[in-house]
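At this stage, I wrote out one protein's amino acid sequence and its backbone structure tokens, and that material follows here:
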Amino acid sequence: MNTDYEIDELDRFIDIVRSFYEKDGFNALYIKLFSLRDYFRYSVSEIRTQEENLELMKNGEHNNFATNEEYQESEMRIFSCAISSYGHMRTCLHFVRMICKEKDDPQLLAIREKYKKWAENLVDKRDRIQAHPHEEWAIAGEVSGRNSNGEVYFNTRDFTKSSKSRKITLTPRKDLEILRSYLKEISIYFINVLSQNHQVKS
């Protein structure tokens, strides 16, 4: 599997947890971690598909396709994959919250605080574009553009505030790489804690 899908630290965290329970069956933490890794990979898959279609657009856009229908289909994938990736990344944040729940270690809290504003922004984008674009506070209108880096732009309106308009920018690869860093730091924290408490071999 391509290394873009992998987070070595998360794999190590999963392996340690699995080693504790391999005689007694898998516990809830193991299942959550395994699912977290899967949803991260789903995010990667969506963004890689988006990037493959962006590559098809290089140096010619319409001229790179035999028909206009093929061009439109490729462009639709660019937008669709960007939108879908935010649903998967949001699910990753859900799993992180569950895994960290009720732990008040200052070191862990500092990691979460470091990524708090970014996470809130990602959730807001996901809510308005991927999960609730039909709601009065987040009605998504036409796509307003894209660029070669995979950023896509949407116009939205908040009809609860006098039809206030807002432009939402999705930055799939950028947010994926921040999520990757977040999961690495969370995994390293728990690896260290488990190693100290259970004398796990490195």
Summary: The chain has a mean pLDDT of 91.
